Amino acid sequence: MLVEGYVSTDGPYTGLTKDQLLECAYCPLWVRVRCLLLVAYWTSWLVMLAGAITLVVVTPKCLTPEPLQWWQLSPAYQVYPLSYQDGSHPPDGFGDILGIESRLDYIKDLGVGAIWLSPIYKSPMKDFGYDIQDFRDIAPVFGTMDDFHSLSRAMKERGIKLVLDFVPNHSSNLHEWFQKSVKREAPYTDYYVWTDAKGFEPEGTPIPPNNWRSVFGGSAWEWNQERHQFYLHQFLKEQPDLNYRNPWVLQEMKNVLQFWLDQGVDGFRMDAVAHLLEDEELRDEPVKDEDSIDEYSQLDHKYTFNLPKVLDILREFRILLDKNSENGTKIMITEVYMPVEKLMAYYGNKSHPIAHFPFNFELISVSQENISAQSIYSTIMTWMDNLPKGAWPNWVSGNHDNSRMATRFGNELVDAINMIMLLLPGTPVTYNGEEMGMEDTDVSWEQTKDTVGINAGPMKYKLFSRDPERTPMQWNAGMNAGFSTANQTWLPVNPNYKTLNVQSQLNAKWSHIKVYKLLAKARKTEAIMNGELAIRVLEDCVLVYTRVKKGFPGYMVVVNFAVDTVIVDLTKLDHVPNESFIYVFSTTYAHSFTAKKRISNSEVMMPGQGGMVLTFVPEFPEETIPL
Ligand code: GLC
Q1: For residue 216, which atom of ligand 1 is closest to its CA?
Q2: Residues with catalytic roles
Q3: Closest residue (by CA) to atom 8 of ligand 1?
Q4: For residue range 185-241, what is the model confidence (pLDDT) as tens digits?
Q5: Residue 581's CATH number
Q6: pTM higher than 0.85
Q7: Least crowded by CB within 10 Å, which of 6, 317, 321, 366?
Q8: 85 CA to centre of own chain
Q9: In a domain, 293, yes or no
Q10: Residues 196, 304 share a domain
């Protein structure tokens, strides 16, 4: 076949010969064309590459948040060992380590990631374990070191971390160090804060060196006849203060920390740390308020509380923990009751961190009289506004030293407070029993004394027992609420256990525990872990906050503190669309609410004294890309 326009004289066209091709290839015109094409090809590649690199460099980056650590991911749960579960054979009416182990599945199921265990060390129990006779041993009432290891193993198997109480300020007067210090035996002579009497009364009574008071009432000084000196005790007289001006004491206590780290614990809650140091000159503290309710709060504790060097001691503890943190953070939580602005110093700073977080007791300081949307709003904002950059918040709703949440705020608000606490940025810390709304029990100081069989309890509590929030955990409606089968329990079980107990709440269609579990689950979402917080008070009585992270479902907590129903417009908050879905609601709302129901955000009916959590697709204003 002939190609049109191509004339062949010798038959059909067969293409160019090799020689003809080579001749054309070296023709200067074609060489230039080829070169040009090659240059154009590579130039466009280079331009595209440069463009891509410029885009990557110039485009604003999505900051990937640092991965959160175990102590940030889930709520922590305080277990008060004397009251959690009696696991001894035969039962003795006191909670113990094996008892706690037997309840780990329940704890895991709650969605809790760590247990803080109140003291389990060898102790004469004058202050229920906060008076330690041997920092490296377990009190027989709680079990043995083997029991401890068994608990620790069982927790590891379930992925629950273990945080121990560490009581650095004082020991028991029965501690070997104190016994030897009384006898001025080296090196223990100055392990405690000893001083001579200021003088003697005519009849020979020694006069204390100054006006310092014990937190539990009375003088902070106790005369020791054998050593013929006073020793300091900022708590009970059976809890002499250790002397941190002696470097050996600091070393001893660091050794104690190391001992427990070597047993595999994951961190410490450090007790009463603001009391670690006192004025060297032992100056009198100024009287600030003669009319104060107790003598301790009459004084301005400028010479016994929160002395600047306390932070240096804590920093030493933190360095030790960090050295032991190669396989995961060893956490340090400090216990100090103090105004938030000052408390923030306990976080330390980026180059010199101290506590991973100092306990935030602001929610505890709110009482039934002053609880309102506004007071909770201020409580949250005070913490958030004062928080140092990059520091991690925390929220504590109750503990063994304070009245229970249901008693402080009323049973109706239990879920609402848990909602607020569990979905805020930071780690929530729940005291055992608060997940089901346990209430204070009517216990007198005499009752504690009689059941424990010792002259227990601080003086001040002879009038007001400090145990109402420490009564046994209410597991079921059986004997002693399932806590123990002994004839008597160390503190009486609250008579409400027949209806208020774990089992009935797990069996019920809707209950405080069920709400708690759903909240713990929601915490794991991106918006709660890494999202922004925006918070407002609507209609004077409704507290609302949103947790939003672009690209993820948002969460909104809405709580009505008033008794009456109120209608709120939630679209007033940024990123909130017209509709959302109910995720979880208070038990008080159970009769009229349904989970997953779609609701209109512009007119939400909130019945009194309760709350709910909504999920929604956050809206963001259209972004304009600059040309
Ligand atoms: C802490 C404890 C408290 C104890 C005191 C003295 O405040 O929480 O229970 O009595 O320290 O150790």
Answers
A1: 10
A2: 271, 335
A3: 401
A4: 999 999 999 999 999 999 999 999 999 999 988 999 999 999 999 999 999 999 999
A5: 2.60.40.1180
A6: yes
A7: 6
A8: 23
A9: yes
A10: no
